[in-house]
TrEMBL record:
<dbReference type="Pfam" id="PF13873">
    <property type="entry name" value="Myb_DNA-bind_5"/>
</dbReference>
<comment type="subunit">
    <text>Self-associates forming complexes of several hundred monomers.</text>
</comment>
<keyword id="KW-0805">Transcription regulation</keyword>
<protein>
    <recommendedName>
        <fullName>Regulatory protein zeste</fullName>
    </recommendedName>
</protein>
<keyword id="KW-0804">Transcription</keyword>
<feature type="domain" description="Myb/SANT-like DNA-binding">
    <location>
        <begin position="5"/>
        <end position="82"/>
    </location>
</feature>
<dbReference type="InterPro" id="IPR028002">
    <property type="entry name" value="Myb_DNA-bind_5"/>
</dbReference>
<comment type="function">
    <text>Involved in transvection phenomena (= synapsis-dependent gene expression), where the synaptic pairing of chromosomes carrying genes with which zeste interacts influences the expression of these genes. Zeste binds to DNA and stimulates transcription from a nearby promoter.</text>
</comment>
Length: 155
């Protein structure tokens, strides 16, 4: 018998999951991985599973699928922030090189600017500094990223 794919998570379910994770973030975002910490994390995910299924009893979810959703939201948030940082840096390089902005938009097009969703914004707030690029004083872009790195707040 094949495992059936569950229903997609709704926006309301995602936001509620993030509320539950936010309540347990001191345990779940702890970088320790010893036996005691892992047990605490497992228990926290079981509590999240219970609370989540209490709120949405029509479509019960397992802790593993909730954790997978949260990990996917974190990954997507980091990708969006990295894309934004990259596009901001490219824009900065173009400005430094004194390229005329009209040349870029001559065809009436423009460039794609990824926007954070509400869920990604909440994840970004929880992750804090872990999405910022590492500082490297020997990198030619270090000065730019220390001043203009995207962290969810406009520069």
């Amino acid at each position: 018998m094949e495992a059936r794919r569950g229903k997609k998570f709704t926006g309301e379910e995602k936001m509620f999951l993030l509320e539950l994770v936010d309540l347990q973030k001191s345990i779940l975002l702890c970088r320790k991985s010893d036996q005691v910490s892992n047990k605490q994390k497992t228990d926290a995910w079981k509590k999240i599973e219970h609370d989540f299924n209490s709120r949405f009893p029509d479509n019960p979810r397992k802790a593993t699928s909730l954790k997978l959703l949260y990990d996917n939201l974190k990954r997507k948030t980091r990708q969006t922030v990295a894309e934004t940082n990259r596009s901001l840096y490219v824009k900065h390089l173009k400005t430094v090189a004194k390229k005329d902005k009209r040349e870029i938009n001559k065809t009436g097009g423009g460039s794609y600017k990824p926007q954070l969703t509400d869920a990604e914004g909440r994840v970004l707030a929880m992750l804090g500094d872990s999405v910022k690029p590492l500082e490297n004083p020997y990198d030619s872009a270090a000065d730019y990223f220390s001043k203009y790195c995207y962290t969810g707040v406009s520069p």
